């Protein structure tokens, strides 16, 4: 993994070059990178990404599409908790209680 200070120097140099470029798309890209500069450097500092949040968002969007709307916001939030929490102790059918075996 690259050192965050090195990344910051290289990124600053590239943004400076892009702003002086005669190509409009490079100028736009340089401006966008400048706006997100702190987040880009922080990625190299922490090593984290937003992949987990994007995956949860995908689950929630799929639940919304599958149901074609919920009667209340509370119902949507409940479904989101059930889908994203990956609970293991729920019965397969909520109307039939699951049988819990005693430890041997």
Automatic annotation (TrEMBL):
InterPro entries: Transpos_ISL3, Transposase_DDE. Residues 4-78 form the Transposase IS204/IS1001/IS1096/IS1165 DDE domain. It holds the Pfam family DDE_Tnp_ISL3. This is Transposase IS204/IS1001/IS1096/IS1165 DDE domain-containing protein. It comes from mine drainage metagenome.
């Amino acid at each position: 993994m690259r050192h965050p200070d090195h990344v910051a120097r290289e990124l600053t140099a590239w943004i400076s070059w892009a702003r002086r470029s005669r190509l409009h798309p490079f100028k736009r890209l340089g401006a966008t990178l400048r706006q997100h500069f702190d987040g880009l450097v922080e990625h190299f500092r922490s090593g984290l990404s937003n992949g987990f949040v994007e995956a949860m968002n995908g689950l929630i969007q799929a639940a919304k599409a599958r149901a074609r709307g919920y009667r209340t916001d509370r119902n949507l939030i409940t479904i989101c908790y059930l889908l994203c929490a990956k609970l293991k102790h729920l019965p397969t059918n909520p109307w039939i209680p699951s049988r819990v075996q005693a430890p041997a």
